[in-house]
Amino acid sequence: MGSTGTGRFTDYPGNPKPIKGVVGPDPKEDKCELAISTELEDVQTSEYYNQYGKVPEQGSLVTIGFRKRIVALSKEKLTIGSLPTKYNYLLGCIENGFNYTGEVEDSDDGCVPFIKIAVTPNLK
Taking the alpha carbons of 20, 68, 72, 65 in that order, is the dihedral positive or negative? Predict the structure, then answer.
């Protein structure tokens, strides 16, 4: 009583094989070229929060970088939080010449500090 296959949906007929960096029904759509709007994780333990005791204000400049995780960086190059792991593909995008810049869409210093960012891709 065994089974074969990888345990992925692509083992079943009608499910296409994944293409690295490509998402959606149009195989020409590259995830690296999509803008991102997301809430950050680890805000309270970020370099910025530990140094200033607050979160960056709405409208503050942010860039995306890699420091053991995909992170958002302030204009001072301090981490302000980590992106959710579903954005780990951005490391490959950055290594392939993309950079991501944008701003803080929303932030709050409440009991649980909160930051939401919006960034767009650019080729270096």
Answer: negative
Mean of pLDDT over the chain: 86
User: Under DSSP, is residue 122 helix (H, G, I), strand (E, B) or coil?
Assistant: strand
Predicted TM-score of the model (pTM) = 0.76
Name the residue among 70, 88, 82 with its Cα closest to residue 113.
82
List phi, psi (to 5°) of 60. -65, 145
pLDDT tens digits along 3-51:
555 655 555 555 555 555 555 555 667 899 999 999 999 999 999 999 9
Type of residue at 3: S
CA 8 to the chain's CA centroid: 24
Identify whether the C-beta of residue 24 lies closer than 8 Å to the C-beta of residue 16: no
